[in-house]
Amino acid sequence: MIRPGLAVLALVALPAAAGARETLGVFDRWGAFSDPAPRRCYAIAEPVRAGGASRWRPFASIASWPTPGSGGGGVRNQLHVRLSRDRNPQARVTLSVGDRRFDLTATAADAWASDARTDAAIVSAIRSSRSMSVETLGRTGGPFADVYALKGAATAIDAAALACLTR
């Protein structure tokens, strides 16, 4: 059995060789990392249950880009989800966190909140929930969901946000 923290490290190990990615910490199923250029800090996790096999590794991340010059315009705690497989272009993507539901904006395989206010509501819901899921329809019309455990998420989000504030 792979320890949850090892799965998070494996998720970012290959891209780390190309840059000077810093591991800020691994907190149960969530990891916190920072990249120097462009400057960004993020918490990231793989789903505990993915809705299908894919050519890529699905993930959920909460990221911050501290300054406009780093390519992110001073973004803080922004959700990004890579779905486990391509979705039907006409299908809605819904994030469920505890008893809250959020409609996400999406491309074929990626989804995010429509605005900063929704990002803040999502992060607040993550802090007080045990799991979240992203649901949609696959390209062929069948439903699928990617499910994430949230233990360690709040700590990883805080570690990432603090790293971008202090460096």
N-end to C-end Cα span: 36 Å
Indicate the overall shape.
globular
What is the number of helical segments per DSSP (H or I, 4+ residues)?
A: 3
Q: Which strand order does the major sheet show?
A: 1-2-3-4-5-8-7-6-9-10
CATH topology: Immunoglobulin-like
- Level-2 CATH architecture: Sandwich
* Helicity level: 10-25%
Task: Tell me what you see in this structure.
The chain has 167 residues and is of the alpha+beta class. The chain contains 3 helices and 10 strands; from the N terminus they run H-E-E-E-E-E-E-E-E-H-E-E-H. The longest helix is centred in the C-terminal third of the chain and has 14 residues, at 153-166. The protein is globular, with a radius of gyration of 15 Å.
Topology of helices and strands:
Layout: H1 4-16, E1 22-27, E2 30-36, E3 39-45, E4 59-64, E5 78-82, E6 93-97, E7 100-106, E8 110-112, H2 116-127, E9 131-137, E10 143-149, H3 153-166
Summary of the model, kept short:
This protein has 167 residues and is of the alpha+beta class. The protein is 23% helix and 36% strand.
